[in-house]
Design a protein that fits this description.
Blueprint (H helix, E strand, L loop, with lengths): L1 H24 L13 H6 L7 H37 L5 H30 L4 E7 L2 E7 L5 H14 L5 E7 L2
Parallel strand pairs: 2-3
Antiparallel strand pairs: 1-2
Length: 176
C-alpha cells in the first residue's frame, strides 16, 4: 500500500513539474503597443499598391455569395425547425418521426459538406466559392479571373472525390 502511494506521489510530482516547465517556457511576451509606432517599425513596413477595381468586384462577389449563403441557411433552418417540431409532436407515427429525424441529419450533413467543399475549392487557389447541394446536383459558383474547362474539371474532380453522391456538378465562373 505504501509503495502505491509513493508511485502516485512521484507521478503527480512529475506531472506538476512538466506542466510548470511548459508554462514557464511558453510564456508569451507582453504586448508593447508603443513599439508599433516607433521609427524602426515604420522603416520595416512597406506599402503595397493594389488595384481598387479588383478589390471592389471581389467584395461585391463575396457579398453576393454571402447573401446567397444566408438565404440557403435560412431556408434550411426553417425546414429543420419544422422537422424538429414534427419529431417532438405526438400527432405523428414513429415512422414519420424517424423519417423527419433522418431528414434533419441529412440537412446537417449537406451543410457541413458544402462548407468543406467550399474550403477545398478555395484551397485550389480561388478567392471565393459558393457550393449548393440539391439532391444529386451540386451547383458551384467560383470567383476567378479566367475560365477554362481544365479548371472546371479540376473543381468537378475534387467535388466528386469528396461527395460521391454528386452526379451532376455545374461550375459557374464569376470574373472579378
Amino acid at each position: 500500500m505504501n509503495k502505491k502511494r509513493s508511485v502516485w506521489f512521484l507521478t503527480l510530482f512529475s506531472l506538476v513539474a512538466v506542466v510548470t516547465v511548459f508554462y514557464v517556457s511558453d510564456r508569451p511576451s507582453p504586448f508593447d503597443g508603443i513599439a508599433l509606432f516607433s521609427d524602426d517599425t515604420l522603416d520595416e513596413v512597406g506599402l503595397v499598391e493594389t488595384s481598387s477595381t479588383n478589390e471592389e468586384s471581389f467584395v461585391s462577389q463575396s457579398n453576393a455569395f454571402e447573401e446567397m449563403r444566408m438565404e440557403v441557411t435560412e431556408k434550411r433552418s426553417q425546414l429543420t425547425e419544422q422537422l424538429t417540431k414534427k419529431v417532438g409532436s405526438n400527432e405523428f407515427t414513429a415512422e414519420q418521426k424517424d423519417e423527419a429525424y433522418n431528414q434533419i441529419e441529412e440537412l446537417v450533413k449537406i451543410d457541413s459538406t458544402e462548407a468543406m467543399l467550399e474550403l477545398i475549392i478555395k484551397s485550389l487557389g480561388y478567392d471565393d466559392a459558393l457550393v449548393r447541394i440539391e439532391e444529386s446536383d451540386v451547383l458551384i459558383d467560383v470567383v476567378a479571373n479566367e475560365q477554362s474547362t481544365k479548371k472546371a474539371s479540376e473543381i468537378i474532380y475534387a467535388v466528386k472525390r469528396e461527395w460521391p453522391k454528386a452526379y451532376n456538378v455545374e461550375v459557374n465562373f464569376n470574373g472579378q
